[in-house]
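ok so for the tutorial part 2 we go from a plain amino acid sequence to predicted structure tokens. step 1 is just haveing the sequence, like this:
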Amino acid sequence: MKTSRQGTPQVRIDGLYKIFGPQSKAMMTQVRGGMGKPELLAEHNHVLGLQDIDVDMWAGEITVVMGLSGSGKSTLIRHLNLLIEPTAGVVEVDGVDVTSLNEDDLREMRRKKMSMVFQKFALLPHRTVLGNAAMPLEVQGIDQETREAEGRKWLARVGLAGYEDRYPHQLSGGMQQRVGIARALTSNSDIMLMDEAFSALDPLIRTDMQDLLLELQAELHKTVVFITHDLDEALKLADHLVILNDGAVVQQGEPQDILLNPADPYIEDFVSDINRARVLRVRSVMHQTPTGREVAGDVDANATLESLIAESGGETDRAYRVMLDGRPVGEIDMADLVRALVPRVSEGAARAS
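step 2 — the prediction. this is what the tokens look like for a chain of 353 residues:
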């Protein structure tokens, strides 16, 4: 759930460009002059990875960056801890431009400020589960007793108590990824970077891991940057959703708003097959000003439209009072709910039909 935003974002990306190739700096003139990704590749043999990215990431929120393969999402997340250096632009963490850090300060930031969870788990095969979980504190020079106590605590928190002396090859894929999450939590960093962290898992295990992340987030309020190509996963996890296409931001904002108000045909196509009843929340469809009509009952603002349809028995002539934290915040009419279930169709798609 979105936090109360105050002050400045914890991570600020401003005017970020990444061009891959030996003359990347020189190619900025071409790109700023309007040259696109295909032309840059065809005429100059350079690849435009990211183009003029502006994204704010707020403390305590899950920012999900999604897009199809090649959209630039993994390139973007690697700029946050400077595993990739930008061609142009600013990446600030807690008000500090990470591109200005020297090697020692950058190493310190990676050790203490950010942790990373990888798609392929990245566990050390010769170390036990506990050894892997405690490794971030070992790198920080923390004594063995303290780091192992922290490792045990977080392993228990992700459901792996009793597995401390096992080795990664003795665990299932889902269990290995739980070790990866425990390792990230053991570092006690403010920011967790998760690059396609659940993509290699079977669907049921993936759902369990999503639920675990949301459960941990409700307790810990980390700043999470989550990369995915799966829209259902993005809509489930995101407080703030950023959609990339060909290295540029196509649309960003609150997921419910993007689903209801897609910015262009690309986004409309992206969201067209989503089960809207299962994803949309009452708060996104309700009227904030009560109409004064008789209501059939109360409904929670964060309930899904699917649950309200079940509550109403499918009747479309009813209205409900919307409640949040025990107080009324609006009203929802079933007719408005039904209209919200119909995706917007782009003009191009309408003409084609």
